[in-house]
Amino acid sequence: MRSNDVGGLQISTHDGLWIPVPPDPNQFFVMVGDALQVLTNGRFISVRHRALTNTLKARMSIMYFGAPPLNWWITPLPKMVSPPQKPSLYKPFTWAQFKQAAYSLRLGDSRLDLFKAQ
Q1: How many helices (H) and strands (E) does the chain have?
Q2: Helices (H), 1-118
Q3: Where are the beta strands (DSSP E) in 1-118?
Q4: 8 A C-beta contact, residue 6 and residue 48
Q5: Angle value at C-alpha 114, between 78 and 46, nearest 5 degrees
Q6: Is 114 exposed, middle or buried, given 0-12, 13-18 or 19+ CB atoms closer than 10 A?
Q7: Which of 32, 94, 99, 108 could form a Cys-Cys staple with 44, CB 3.0–4.6 A?
Q8: What pLDDT is stored for residue 65 in this prediction?
């Protein structure tokens, strides 16, 4: 993500505390999404985030979202799994199944909880 020099982006800690991310028009911010969390078997963690409005200055940000075709399977990469020391944390699912789950839940709910391995 790239933005101008106006703040507003915040990330959430595991205990729900929102922390502002200082704006820097000379840097890119990369936020890991749910699919990359699964592909890396939890090595990279999806970031819960939000953007607040600024009543004094206009905030502009540019994002790029990538996603596979709906019928592609999402599962940890073989290199990220080594049973029994590091078993797969997630059940395989298609991108369509993930999107269906995302649309059926509230915005703040964890979508990946539905796909955790037992």
Answers
A1: 2, 7
A2: 34-39, 95-104
A3: 2-3, 9-12, 18-20, 49-51, 61-62, 73-74, 93-94
A4: no
A5: 65
A6: middle
A7: 32
A8: 83
Euclidean distance between CA atoms 72 and 78, whole angstroms: 16
**Contact 2/60 with Cβ under 8 angstroms?**
no
**Paired strand residues for 116:** 90
What positions carry a catalytic annotation?
59
Nearest to 24 by CA among 37, 42, 43, 8: 8
Q: Whole-model pTM above 0.85?
A: no
pLDDT (tens place) for every residue of the chain, 118 residues total: 677 888 888 999 989 899 999 888 788 878 889 999 999 999 999 988 888 888 888 888 878 888 899 999 999 999 999 989 999 999 999 999 999 998 898 877 788 999 999 7
